[in-house]
């Protein structure tokens, strides 16, 4: 290989590595925003719908499909068991899958929060993600 070709190959590899690192940082930041949104008080329909839009925006960036159960737990916390959720069952999730309400109900008028459901395969890897939007 000529020197120029080697430099070109090295530059392409370096660019791919930088893009991958940037993508990983972007996904981690999206997961951080989702985790923070879970704690946000929701007292109005407008706040609930803002949480719903945030969920849809961030779940795409969060790249949850690439994670293991332990990575999901580290990023979002231990989810609620789908064992006790009619929503999970209605969407075809199993008892070992997890769900996350996106917000904290701060008024009795709010009956349903946007919800993230994460399904795992038998090896503990994310196999499916579902979002319940409220807007």
Describe this structure in words.
- The chain is α+β, with helices and mostly antiparallel strands and 135 residues long.
- It has 4 helices and 6 strands, in the order H-E-H-H-E-H-E-E-E-E.
- It has helices at 3-38, 45-62, 69-76, 86-90; strands at residues 41-42, 80-81, 98-101, 104-105, 115-120, 126-132.
Produce the secondary structure layout.
Blueprint: H1 3-38, E1 41-42, H2 45-62, H3 69-76, E2 80-81, H4 86-90, E3 98-101, E4 104-105, E5 115-120, E6 126-132
Parallel strand pairs: 1-4
Antiparallel strand pairs: 2-3, 3-5, 5-6
Which keywords apply here?
single chain, 135 residues, alpha+beta, four-stranded antiparallel sheet, two-stranded parallel ribbon, 50% helix
Residues in helix, %: 40-55%
The separation of the N and C termini measures: 57 Å
Taking all residues together, what is the mean pLDDT? 89
The Cα radius of gyration reads: 19 Å
Low-confidence spans: none
What count of helical segments does DSSP give? 4
Number of strands: 6
Largest sheet: 4 strands, antiparallel
Molecular shape: globular
What is the gist of this entry?
It contains 4 helices and 6 strands; from the N terminus they run αβααβαββββ. By secondary structure, the protein is of the alpha+beta class.
């Amino acid at each position: 290989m000529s020197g120029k070709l080697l430099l070109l190959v090295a530059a392409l590899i370096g660019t791919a590595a930088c893009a991958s690192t940037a993508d990983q940082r972007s996904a981690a930041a999206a997961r951080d925003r989702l985790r923070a949104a879970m704690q946000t008080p929701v007292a109005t329909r407008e706040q609930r719908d803002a949480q719903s839009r945030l969920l849809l925006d961030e779940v795409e960036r969060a790249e949850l499909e690439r994670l293991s159960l332990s990575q999901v737990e580290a990023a979002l916390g231990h989810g609620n068991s789908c064992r006790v959720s009619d929503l999970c069952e209605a969407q075809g999730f199993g008892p070992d899958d997890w769900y996350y309400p996106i917000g904290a109900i701060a008024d009795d008028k709010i009956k349903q929060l946007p919800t993230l459901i994460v399904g795992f395969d038998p090896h503990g890897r994310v196999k499916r993600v579902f979002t319940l939007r409220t807007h």
